[in-house]
């Protein structure tokens, strides 16, 4: 399997400047796309689309489902992937995807022959208001993760607890206990004499990886900010990434994509969505503390609907940053402003502008015809959930599914699990195509079929008109493929 | 059963001034304690302790367990209750408790013969740094809840969705649809013509009750603030309250007390604890946005231990308000300040001062020998969880257990469930004493037995030296008792 995967020694250019990554991402010779021209239409490199295929993938009318083809571009672990373009809501498919095996080389003293480890990486990026952020994130996020992990190579491979403090020399991950542990009273105590100072908090290896992923998202966002002018990067994107490292999956989510594990028919949510509704209290709290961020247009209070001037003095339901329930308040002048959070479900918007509250990019996004910036309310930090693959026996039908909201808008965990089990049953357990078949079926069922009244699902409800992208990652076979 | 319960028509004095409640809380004639002198030692009225019994309850050496006695003061629903004083950490028992049946009278036009409903109420208050806040909250919180519910009497009894907007007249809960609903375009549309305007958010009856409870906590906190000088109210308290209203339990928690339901042997957590650890990110976010609240003494960053000046320039693990994982940063001058959150588990403290981050009171609390106030970081708002009693068939062994941290510090959900099932099995299902026996056993097992080396549990570990208070509320019999 590895023959078809580039185990790239990923290195970000020093200073995270405007250079393309030292190694284009995997997928075979000729597939790298380099630095695309601004807002160029592109699809994931691993699809290896010919110009003709690219045109077909870009067709809103046919909405042909795209997958890697067996012979040319099998993904690690026989991962299944499928995608389809939207029904016309944007010119091109604004989803992007990346699948890589990345080698993390220990930051060396001399740059020669150092230790390291691999991680596997799958990610979906759901762009909005332009494709630039999603394209750049799909090319670089894994390199930022690699960069963050480079200082941890020795620490993660050492079974003893991570050192709390390291010498200033950044070029070593030395675990010499005499150098790295100090007792509270100022005396130096080797680790083996006092295993853990009683006022010292235990920090796990796992939480170092989580911290590395969190900071990688932040650096990715910073890079988009710095290069957005020179690279003409427009828009923003949700980011959902799965990292397999030393027996554990780390699923990092910033936005409204979604990941679930299906194990022996059981559903294990591996992410939650970040929207104006789920993050209401964080946003209201920020707006209360920094009212200048609202201009004079918005109120941090939430109301179930717009208030009209003639309703002044009446009592209306509201909730503030402290409340989960609703209560009545007398309507005052200030309450006539537009609510910071407004709308319900998929229509919920922050400052009447955006429906997701975490992600990358969006540095220039403003409220329509105003000078009010959205970015201060958006968080680029993901929530990272961990799944320990070594804790369970996995069979070939156990999978991790990653999907953009195009998938989840018209289906749910249970239906997805049903499709997964149904499709996998009809292929031999050792057929490497079976996960691609699942991904395709998931995309087709969410897209629906074009009828007179638009794209329709089997139950005649409206299909998803959004871009749809899905990874189906088998959990049963990592040992065979790495 | 109701014969022994005061179905108080609870009314807070207008303006929530310094007057005692119009009706002292229930428990039978003569049990009201009125306005206690500052920091007076008192126990829950429903215990009806004689002066001699009160002295015995106040004895740190004997630590006798207190419960209502059958003949004089049975609690609604045969609720079990038991408490014990601490092992000497404070002069008196700083826990307080309240159990009431409260009548909510609709706010009337004339004050005559109006509609209303009852709610059942159980609450525990775990005081710190003085008893004043806990005593006052135990006397008043249910009256504040009652006050908040008074405007909702008609609305909650009307099965149609709550009106979004009410006429300014506070004296009516009128549900006349022509008066209360307006469409977005400015035209008035009666409720029955347009059931719910499509840009209008649905608000449930349940969420109105949650909002009422949340605001009642806020008003309780405001009252403590206003009266703390005149009433010499010292300290603060955690508050855990269970309200049974129209078939549902609302469990409201602000602090580190804990509630669980045990149903058919299954454990259902009904609260979570609010501590510097569980609320770290909220506290760090506030500190970041309002650094002046930290004086110049604290940093909003968290470190696993104190940093020493000589470590400047080295790299240390940290996390900020965005992170769940840990990462290394170069130590700078500012990092030498004391971390906002420090310590682990029961020893975690905010600004080296307090181990709970929600509750009532504490308006004067400052960091030791400084002018830095703690209160801005504390939230008086509870988290409210709802349990619908009508969704399940309950047997006499199904209970809701409320306990202060004195209970939970030395035990866990599973052990408590074990004791509950063990004790209930040894009493007839219709024995009204059985829930009191459970409460007593839970208290005794957490307190332990006095041995040469202090209070010891059955496993010889140290027993809880804290005040311990426990309610055991049967879920199987509400219909029989109301």
From TrEMBL, chains A, B:
Pfam families reported in the protein's UniProt record: PP2C
Highest rank taxon of the organism: Eukaryota
InterPro entries attached to this UniProt entry: PP2C (IPR015655), PPM-type-like_dom_sf (IPR036457), PPM-type_phosphatase-like_dom (IPR001932)
Domain PPM-type phosphatase: 78-475
GO cellular component terms listed in the entry, alphabetical order: mitochondrion
Residue ranges of the region described as Disordered: 17-36
Record-linked SUPFAM superfamilies: PP2C-like
One Gene Ontology molecular-function label: [pyruvate dehydrogenase (acetyl-transferring)]-phosphatase activity
Protein name: Protein phosphatase, Mg2+/Mn2+ dependent 1J
